Every structure is written in structure tokens, then in C-alpha cells.
Amino acid sequence: MLESGKSTEAEDCSDGHGAGGARDVVRGAFLGLGDVRLAQGDVAAALESYQQALVGGTPGDTITQRAHEKINALGKADAPSPAPQNEP
């Protein structure tokens, strides 16, 4: 970007505000780390990673949506199973 005379765009990307900024890369990494922790059976660490993925996001962005979905799924996974109903 600097070579083409677009120093402003380069600055935007370097501070996390440009297209696919560094902040979003880190947030995406937290999503992946949460998936790894969950696969290892560490639900608490997975939840913490998913919550970190929310930091610096904007409502409705893709990473925020995915993090909320994963957090909500964990909440449902921890819910007790309904008691079986007796059929007559």
C-alpha cells in the first residue's frame, strides 16, 4: 500500500481499523481458540475465549455473531435434559 502512495490506507490497516484489521484477526483467533478449548473439554476456557472474541467488535459484525452463537450454544449444552415423559 505504501508503494502505491496510499499511506493512509496502510495506517488504517496497521491500527486495526482497515479492511480485515489486526483487531479482527485477533478476535477470529479467539474464536478458533475457543473451539480448540471446547474440543479439549475445557468449557470454561472456551467460554472465556468466545467472550474475548467480542472485545472490540461492533454489534452485528460476523465475528460478534459467531461468538454469540457459540456462547449461546454452550449455555444450552449446560442445561439439564428434560425429564422423560411417560407415555400411556
Written description of the protein model:
This protein is 61% helix and 0% strand. It is mostly helical and 88 residues long. Helix 2 (22-39) runs antiparallel to helix 3 and helix 3 packs antiparallel against helix 4. It starts with 6 loop residues before the first helix and ends in an 11-residue tail after the last helix.
Quick structural gist:
The chain is an all-alpha fold. It contains four helices and no strands. It has helices at residues 7-14, 22-39, 43-54, 62-77.
Question: Layout of helices and strands, plus pairs?
Answer:
Blueprint: H1 7-14, H2 22-39, H3 43-54, H4 62-77
Helix pairs in contact: 2-3, 3-4
Q: Structural class, from secondary structure content?
A: mainly alpha
Shape: globular
* Count of alpha and pi helical runs: 4
Oligomer: single chain
Radius of gyration: 19 Å
Name the helix and strand elements from N-terminus to C-terminus, one letter apiece.
HHHH
Level of helix content? 55-70%
- The number of E-state strands comes to 0
β-sheet strand percentage: under 5%
Sheet with most strands? none
